[in-house]
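Minimal example, chain plus D-xylitol-5-phosphate.
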Amino acid sequence: MATIIAPSILSADFGHLADEVKKVTDAGAEYIHIDVMDGTFVPNITIGSPVVKALRPTTKAVFDVHLMIEHPETQIASFADAGADIITFHAETTKHAHRVVQQIHAAGCKAGVAINPGTSLSAIEELIEDVEMVLIMTVNPGFAGQKFIESQLYKIHMLYHMIEELETECDIEVDGGINAKTSVDVREAGANILVAGSAIYGAKDIAQAIKDIRGKEIEHHHNH
Ligand code: DX5
Ligand code: ZN
């Protein structure tokens, strides 16, 4: 599966967001990763749906909205109307994860479910066949520029095999501490959508940074 690069605009200049989006799409990025934080599930408050709406007419890129918020069910319609293509919520934020997935689909978007580094795959196992994407957090959500948590590689690997076992299609996205180096490990483990904030927006040559993170295509050997 070809790797998709999703630059996180959390590391962009918020005073010039449309230009910052264009910068990364011109450099080859397929998705724009939009980190929505509520100051409760995670400490900061970042981007709301009006910002997504303002950016929508400026680009054709896929808007990959990562909700790090409590009560995600209350915000789905507004992010869908604002132009989100994929809406990802955290399994830790709701008792009714499956219903949230149904709400995202009913709003016309692809659904993703995310888990924190300390959350087991068992929290989302029953959702794999119903979502388009699982997001494995490789840092604790809340901030850009944190160090990649190595122990999550095994989780990515396990998820890859669960998806294979189920003979279903489901993207594996990783988010946090992704750079040219950690990219190799997460892609080997089975991730195909790579979020990167500081490694892309902090680079002098953004096109080169995206190319380095994308790396060479990895072949997965199937064991059945
Ligand atoms: C973390 C956010 C990430 C963050 C990634 O809470 O979900 O998307 O922006 O930033 P880097 O790539 O710098 O770890
Ligand atoms: Zn994110």
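The chain is about 30% helix and 20% strand. Helices lie at 17-26, 49-55, 76-82, 97-106, 152-166, 180-189, 198-201, 206-214.
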